[in-house]
Amino acid sequence: MARWQPGTRERLQETALQLFGTQGYDATTVAEIARDAQVTERTFFRHFADKREVLFAGQSDFLGLFTHPIEQAPADAAPFELVRGALLASGDFFDAEKRPFSRARQAVIDQNPALQERELGKLATLKIHLGALLVARGVTEPTATIAAETAVTLFHLSFQQWIAADEDRSFRAVATERLAALQDFVHPTR
Amino acid sequence: MARWQPGTRERLQETALQLFGTQGYDATTVAEIARDAQVTERTFFRHFADKREVLFAGQSDFLGLFTHPIEQAPADAAPFELVRGALLASGDFFDAEKRPFSRARQAVIDQNPALQERELGKLATLKIHLGALLVARGVTEPTATIAAETAVTLFHLSFQQWIAADEDRSFRAVATERLAALQDFVHPTR
DNA sequence: GTCTATAGTGCGATAGAC
DNA sequence: GTCTATCGCACTATAGAC
Lengths: 190, 190
What we know:
Two copies of one chain form a homodimer.
Chain A: H1 8-23, H2 30-36, H3 41-47, H4 61-72, H5 79-90, H6 99-110, H7 113-136, H8 143-162, H9 171-186
The structure holds a DNA duplex (18 and 18 nucleotides).
């Protein structure tokens, strides 16, 4: 008999999301999650640095989705085109099938300020990576940082709208709308 | 003899910043701050919801600085002009005299991810207030949210540069540079 | 895998301001 | 008398140290 079951990490994440959804985040203890997932509290904290992290671990795979199109772009591409390309490409990850899960996860996050702060922290990490990538491509400051901030902000706003209750358009369609709104905001056509 | 001295809140904030600066945030306990400020631990938590908050409480006065110029602007002002006005006006608060204090406070925040997350949370609150204000002025979505996000992001980036070690220009000068960089990023002149 | 420090909560009692 | 700031203490959960 195996000493431990495979997929402990994933089991903890699923168990946590389900408990958070039914009981609320604060009302769910780490001990409870661990018990339901058949491990000890100590094991939970070996997989996740803190209680909040169980909801966010694993989405760093998604960093590559954002940076890959930028790395592949022609060397003379303008920063705004790099951002546009990365934003639209990131939408491929968020297909219709993932929308229910994303909504359930976000519903938990939206109910707890501490989780909202962690979400912002993760986005800030993405901004820093993206800014460094743009600098490596020769974009100068302060443009590189502004471009990175703008890209991640547009991603976040697009994502929020994509999972809104009454939204059924694709991520790409929502993101395109926000890109246009930014351009019109900065340089109004009339 | 009085049971309690006036200005407990401010005393706790000053004591905390000093201890954080010398010992580090994690190495300083709430009990220690309370002892130095001549109150009990319980009193600390009556003034501040959590340990981090002692570094952030009080800066909500600064919200008005941001929103006031927008409320005063002519009804037909374009969103970008509202943002520009608010950003430059907020700079009046950050005069040369405040720079050393701001640098000391930020040095503590920069050393601790939990404090960085709280800072992002505070900025997110400002974004929400600002977005609601723009909507109340008749700006439609998604432009209102994009304008609010952009305004607060430009503020944050300007502030970060303003307190950089080698920076001696005024907040206004730094912010103006970032406004120009955004415009050039979104619609390059060449 | 166990043990412990710290953060943070709940509640009743108390002291002074009004 | 009411209101508010403080104290004091018991308590739980997180998180890190050993």
